[in-house]
Specification:
alpha/beta, Rossmann fold, 2 domains, 9 strands, Asp/Glu_race, Asp/Glu/hydantoin_racemase
């Protein structure tokens, strides 16, 4: 049996460009690991302007965010993509609208995350990410309703602090020691409230802590999403090994 990439990956990026660069590296590393040689992942990237989207989100104009992300996804479809991934967690708040706007599948990052958590034997998890991810239902509800996970988040003061760290520091490439310590304390507090594992629910958070740094098993949504995208893009050629 021979593996080959049969599907072209479409990437909606720019939210922030730091996360898009991380996705690009992970996708190509995963494809090379599985295919060997000089292989990398075949993909097409549409980069949005994060400042524009961040302003819309802060004003609660998720309808405008949806329009921008959906148009990017349509452009990827026209460019030949076989499926689309959104390379950030928060824009998944409009994933349902984007999915209905295109005629190709959208791979939602909550699903491979939940599968990995369930396979690890965990059911009560702490969620860390932007304020939108922690407070809105688009991520937590999908984990709960489709996968039966009990999701808890930090108290409001910590949610506000973490959102500021992500938006004002990490999306600009700034990594502060005080922010590392704050994130680790949030994880410890979630553990004290019964979290069996932590969802690293923001593409920029790995800039602060590695998954091994958390006090309980940590699941990086970016890594899991990228691996799932490569899984979807690759297929086994049935012509290989078909003869006895």
């Amino acid at each position: 049996m021979t593996l080959r990439q049969s599907k072209l990956i479409g990437m909606v990026g720019g939210m922030s460009w730091e996360s898009s660069a991380l996705y690009y590296r992970l996708l190509n590393a995963a494809a090379h690991r599985r295919l060997g040689g000089h292989h990398n992942a075949r993909s097409v990237l549409f980069t949005l302007d994060f400042d524009e989207l961040n302003t819309m989100a802060s004003m609660g104009r998720w309808d405008r965010v949806s329009e921008r992300v959906a148009e990017a996804a349509r452009c990827l479809e026209r460019a030949g993509a076989d499926f689309v991934i959104i390379t950030a967690v928060t824009p998944h708040s409009v994933a349902d609208q984007v999915e209905t706007a295109i005629g190709i599948p959208l791979l939602h990052l909550a699903d491979p995350t939940a599968v990995a958590i369930r396979n690890g034997g965990f059911s009560r998890v702490g969620l860390l990410g932007t304020r939108y991810t922690m407070e809105m239902d688009f991520f937590r509800q999908r984990l709960r309703d489709r996968h039966g996970l009990d999701v808890i988040t930090p108290p409001q003061e910590q949610r506000t602090a973490l959102h500021r760290i992500i938006v004002d520091e990490l999306t600009l490439g700034a990594v502060e020691d005080a922010s590392k310590a704050a994130l680790l304390q949030m994880a410890r507090d979630l553990q004290a409230r019964g979290a069996e594992a932590i969802i690293v629910g923001c593409t920029e958070l790995p800039l602060l802590l590695d998954t091994d740094d958390y006090p309980v098993p940590a699941f990086d949504v970016t890594v899991l999403h990228a691996e799932a995208a490569v899984d979807l893009a690759l297929e086994t050629d049935p012509r290989e090994g078909s003869e006895a």
